[in-house]
């Protein structure tokens, strides 16, 4: 009986997981021949993520 309960919980979580996930398509891109200056960032379309690029050894003082 416990195997049936565990199997049911697994199936329930398997089918509920896609309801909470978001589908993302690659619309926010940068190409190989594009460049960013020191003060530029890449921000996702919904403004959820922001990518900041830096060189190793550079100052981290401008991070918030």
Automatic annotation (TrEMBL):
The keyword Signal applies. Keywords: Signal. Residues 1-26 form the signal peptide. This is Secreted protein.
């Amino acid at each position: 009986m416990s195997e049936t309960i565990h199997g049911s919980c697994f199936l329930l979580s398997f089918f509920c997981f896609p309801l909470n996930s978001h589908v993302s398509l690659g619309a926010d891109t940068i190409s190989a021949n594009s460049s960013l200056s020191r003060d530029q960032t890449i921000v996702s379309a919904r403004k959820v993520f922001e990518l900041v690029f830096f060189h190793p050894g550079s100052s981290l003082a401008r991070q918030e």
